[in-house]
Every structure is written in C-alpha cells, then in structure tokens.
Amino acid sequence: MERIRNKIFSVDEANALIPFLEEALDSLSATGREIASLRNEVQVLSAIEGSGATSRNQDVRHLREKEAQSARLLDQFREALLHVASRGCILRDLDLGLIDFYTMSRDRVVCLCWRRGEARVMHWHPVDEGFSGRRPLAELP
Length: 141
Known about the structure:
The protein contains 3 helices and 5 strands, in the order αααβββββ. By secondary structure, the chain is of the alpha+beta class. Helix 2 runs antiparallel to helix 3. The longest helix has 34 residues.
C-alpha cells in the first residue's frame, strides 16, 4: 500500500476519517498488546531452553510456534500502520491515539490535530510544535 505524501486536508475531510481511525487505532493497540505478551512468553521460553532445564521437543516446538505467531502479528501490525499512513494522515502516538492532518492556513502548512475519543477535529498546531502546541480551531488564522 502506497503512502499518500503531503496530502492537504480540509477539516471535513479529516473528520470523515475519524470512524476509520477509531477502528484502526483500536485494532493497532490490541495487536500491539498481543505482540508484547507473546514477546514476554518467548523470552521466558527462551530462558528455559537456554538454561538447559528442559530440552524436550514439545517445549522447543512451543517456543517456535510463539515466535512464528509473534512474527505474523508484527507483519499485521506493520500492514495496519501502512493502511493508516496511506490515507495521508500521520500517526504521532499510538498509546495516546494522536493523529495529525496537514492543512493550509493562509500561506503555510499547519496540522489539524485529533486525539482518539474526540468526536471531531477541534484543534490545530504549527508543524514544529506538536501536541503541546494545540490550539482551538477557532484560533486557526
């Protein structure tokens, strides 16, 4: 999937993506948690295997299955990230659910800023300021 570069959004276009983004962020978060859990299991199983405490084929097979499952989930996670990026928006922070959309304000590019859980885009910030520089849309020049 190809990423759309430098897409310029209107507020309405950004708002139209919110249902997709809510679902995508929920899925990415769940997959990320599952990957982290599997990585912990793999670490424990690898430590057991490396300690020589067990060399049973069943334990080694279980370790390899967990490693393969983790790799598959990581591929799904990357694909989901690309799917979000292909829409032209920028995922800034998965844990916080922060998404930016480039937009034009007079003659300069700024970011519309949305956070998971917000009903619509209500903020913007200069490109170089990020979330801490969020301002209400009413203040957009």
